[in-house]
Amino acid sequence: MIGSSRWGLAALTWAIIAVILILPPVLVMTEALRNGAGAPIASLADPDALSAIRLTLVMTALSVLINTIFGVLAAWVISKYRFPLRGFLVALIELPISVSPVVAGLVWLLLFGTQGWWGEALDRMNIHIAFAAPGILLATLFVTFPYVTRTIAPLMEQQGRDAEEAAMLLGASFFQILWRVTLPEARWALLSGVLLTTARAMGEFGAVSVVSGHIPGMTETMPLHIETLYNGYQTVAAFSMAALLALMAMATVGLRSLLEARARASLQTKDTAP
Amino acid sequence: MTVAASLRSRRARDPLPGFRLALGGTLLWVGLIVALPLTALIVRPWQEGPSAMLAALHDGRMFAALRVSFTTALLAALIDVPLGLTLAWALVRGRLPGRRIADGLIDLPFAIPTAVTGITLATLYGPQGWLGAPLAKLGLSIAYSATGIVVALMFVGLPFIVRSVEPVLRDLPPELEEAAGLLGARPWQTVWRVILPTLLPAAVSGFGLAFARGIGEYGSVIFIAGNQPYHSEIAPLLVVVRLQEYDYAGATSIAFVLLVISSLCLAAVAWLRRRVARGLIVGADE
Amino acid sequence: MSVRIENLVRTAPGNASKVLLDGVSLDVPDGSFMALVGPSGAGKTTLLRAIAGLDAFQSGSVVIDERDATGLSARDRNIGFVFQNYALFRNMTVARNISFGLDVMSRSQRPPQAEIDRRVQELLDLIHLPDMGGVWPQRLSGGQRQRVALARALATRPRHLLLDEPFGALDPVVRRSVREWLRALHDQLGLTTILVTHDHEEALDVSDRLVVMQDGRIVQDAGPDALEARPATPFVMEFLGETLKFAGQVSGGMFIPADPHVARFSVPGVADGEIIALIRPHEVRITSAVNGAPARKVGLRYGFARLAVDMGDRVVDILSATPWDVGESVELHIDAARLFRNGRMVEERCDGWA
């Protein structure tokens, strides 16, 4: 009786997983390889495809770099100090998570679009932000904004201030404390936050779609290029690009899960040591 | 006086170095990337006067789009709750064969970029798709309708439920079930009266996160939705449509409403979670 | 090498009405070993952290080596600090932990690497862990961690050593040996040491001077002998050990106890009026008496018999050098007592304390 209900639960679970979670990635691969292994490679070698891959890589790298540096500073401030309006600052940092990606793109058009506050003035100075790479970067920065801080701040808060105070009394400066004491202790969490930012940055579609202008070969990132190909009925090419992007993102997230397991393990050993 | 004041402030300052620098950097970053654009979003609709805002809000298509987003997100999150609870239970307690693989698969919707999800689900549930074709024979058409939106949002929202419930379930002492069993409860009574109520706060918070995400979701939905105005056009898509029509005021007012709804939703979840958590879980360690 | 604190005031962050340090002044001369004692919440750690520059304060000043340290950053104070939980850097080996204070010096001040290594080895020898340089702190026992934390604090050759409950997490035997070793180290290096502890025995064992704190104030600042002989308030007396309390009246140079079965005794020079006598349990003498208080033996301590004497409205525990039979009727005799009036010690003492 108990055994049968256990196997029933297992079968039900795997059925849910298979239909909802496994079928989609299998379909991506199948569609990409429908015309043989050569087709996806050829479609990815297309100049527009290569440009999209390059743009995605550059935007991802820049967003991760900027959001990591400032995300660490923000985590330091909110985890190591108490000050007025701290809760408000935390809420503001968390806010982008709950904002629709489309809105995250739109807000930049309100500032830098042709009808935006500063769009026309910047246009006259020949500075292009909306429908250009800077706009894509800003949209990506907004969307991936909180992840580093969110990942490391709880850990840094839990670790308290003792180690930092000890380092300070031993003569360490702010950057020495951060670099030699705080960040090494939070390194797994930091890596995990960086990887999450990376995965989100390269996959972002809605926000980037609004600000990019969809110029193939110029302002199309990988997700945008997938849309263009798909809407142009280039199914194999679309799914090839989709497969590549999905593999990149899944590898990033997979690596992150591994790291989280390690982080949890290292945290536990530290907990048991008084 | 100024010397005394400066001495005083120096004394009262937190001696751990880096506060000013880090706070300055943080405020710069938050200000430029988050506060500034959101200020534009909040100020912009009123710039042409409240009547223009009211006119923009008085738009049947917009209300239809918001209704579509709201109902599909609600439905998808509601369906996800039992599915997510089942998965979480199987992962933590069910001694599921292949548990580690299943655990990794749960995060797939987080990992797969929304555009990829969008075209994949559209193909999968499309008239010629692996699932769409057999379902069409049964007279069920999913893709290119509001049903398609629900399916896409279910996919996107499922991990929120599982990952919210899982840690609570893992920390739930087995003694709880044993105690219930010793007190004469049947297994279904134990689940219904003991387990589910303790999981409620986590499930509610997972539900709220999935719902909030669903309302704003764009990439995974637009390919499968069909996007017929008044029927299967979601609010975020209407924002894009309005932008393509160079109707910034229209786009901004929808975006404003979306922002308000998702913020309210998350605030409600936080509030509810605090209330429920206070009342229900009583452990030895509290 | 001295530390002087003048009228220090600190309130709780976010709640200015809660005073943590209420105008504390303290002088710690060069080379002294001082213990800050008191119950938890008395402000000991707060005071120590203020001296180290870890916490800000609202008014007053901290003077280190005749220099106002108020504006001085914590790292410029030439102070070694040992945290209650040691706060070792978990991502560094023992050797790197110890050398941290040297490693973070600016290039112009930092000694060459060979010298740093030599200093680390010297400190490892000093703390009796010569071969532990490559070990991670997580692998050490509590006592070893404690010593590493101490070595780390001493690496930059500070003249002052501040210790916050350094023995709290150690088991009693290790505690005692680390305590003795610390005292020897203090003498050998000529340090000025301030130790925070809530354990009065520890403080009496190791320090030259005890500063008793209560509610953010210093109640008494004295050597161990003076503290025992002349506690400033009943609180100090009670904090330093088990105390018996007898209320009574002074009349014509005689103490007349309120309790029955307690013999009156002479207190020459003390003004008439209500008074409280505090006595250590072993300072009470008992004699057999008809219709006295019933006494029974309840245990042993340090070879003394521990007796519970039923005074009618309360039971008094005393220590007696002579064994006693159960149920015997006794009278209490007090030869030496510290007298308190209005919460302060009365200057004139009674007989036994000439």
Automatic annotation (TrEMBL), chain A:
Main location: membrane
Domain ABC transmembrane type-1: 53-260
A Pfam family per the record: BPD_transp_1
Topology of the protein relative to the lipid bilayer: Multi-pass membrane protein
Assembly behavior: The complex is composed of two ATP-binding proteins (CysA), two transmembrane proteins (CysT and CysW) and a solute-binding protein (CysP).
CDD domains in the cross-refs: TM_PBP2
PANTHER family: SULFATE TRANSPORT SYSTEM PERMEASE PROTEIN, SULFATE TRANSPORT SYSTEM PERMEASE PROTEIN CYSW
One CC-aspect GO term: plasma membrane
Summary of the function given for this chain in its UniProt record: Part of the ABC transporter complex CysAWTP (TC 3.A.1.6.1) involved in sulfate/thiosulfate import. Probably responsible for the translocation of the substrate across the membrane.
Gene3D superfamilies to which the protein is assigned, alphabetical: MetI-like (1.10.3720.10)
Compartments where located: Cell membrane
Protein name listed in UniProt: Sulfate ABC transporter permease subunit
Transmembrane annotation, as ranges: 7-29, 49-76, 88-113, 125-145, 232-255
GO MF annotation list: ABC-type sulfate transporter activity
From TrEMBL, chain B:
Membrane topology: Multi-pass membrane protein
Protein origin, superkingdom: Bacteria
InterPro entries the UniProt entry points to: CysT_permease, MetI-like, MetI-like_sf, Sulph_transpt2
Annotated ABC transmembrane type-1 domain residues: 66-270
Compartmental location: Cell membrane
Transmembrane segments: 21-43, 63-92, 104-126, 138-162, 191-212, 248-272
Keywords for the protein's UniProt record, in alphabetical order: Membrane, Sulfate transport, Transmembrane, Transmembrane helix, Transport
Gene Ontology terms for molecular function: ABC-type sulfate transporter activity
One Pfam family in the UniProt entry: BPD_transp_1
Keyword Membrane included in the entry's annotation: yes
Cellular component GO terms held in the UniProt record: plasma membrane
Function: Part of the ABC transporter complex CysAWTP (TC 3.A.1.6.1) involved in sulfate/thiosulfate import. Probably responsible for the translocation of the substrate across the membrane. Part of the ABC transporter complex (TC 3.A.1.6.1) involved in sulfate/thiosulfate import.
Family the entry assigns: Belongs to the binding-protein-dependent transport system permease family. CysTW subfamily.
Assembly with partners or alone: The complex is composed of two ATP-binding proteins (CysA), two transmembrane proteins (CysT and CysW) and a solute-binding protein (CysP).
Name of the protein in its database record: Sulfate transport system permease protein CysT
Organism for this UniProt entry: Acetobacter estunensis
Gene expressing this chain: cysT
TrEMBL record, chain C:
Domain ABC transporter: 3-240
PROSITE patterns: ABC_TRANSPORTER_1 (PS00211), ABC_TRANSPORTER_2 (PS50893)
Keywords linked to the UniProt accession: ATP-binding, Nucleotide-binding, Transport
GO biological process: quaternary ammonium group transport
SMART domains in alphabetical order: AAA (SM00382)
InterPro entries: AAA+_ATPase, ABC_SmlMolc_Importer, ABC_transporter-like_ATP-bd, ABC_transporter-like_CS, P-loop_NTPase
Keyword Nucleotide-binding attached: yes
GO MF entry, a single one: ATP binding
PANTHER family: SPERMIDINE/PUTRESCINE IMPORT ATP-BINDING PROTEIN POTA, SPERMIDINE_PUTRESCINE IMPORT ATP-BINDING PROTEIN POTA
Protein name (record): ATP-binding cassette domain-containing protein
Native organism: Acetobacter estunensis
Lineage per the UniProt record: Bacteria, Pseudomonadati, Pseudomonadota, Alphaproteobacteria, Acetobacterales
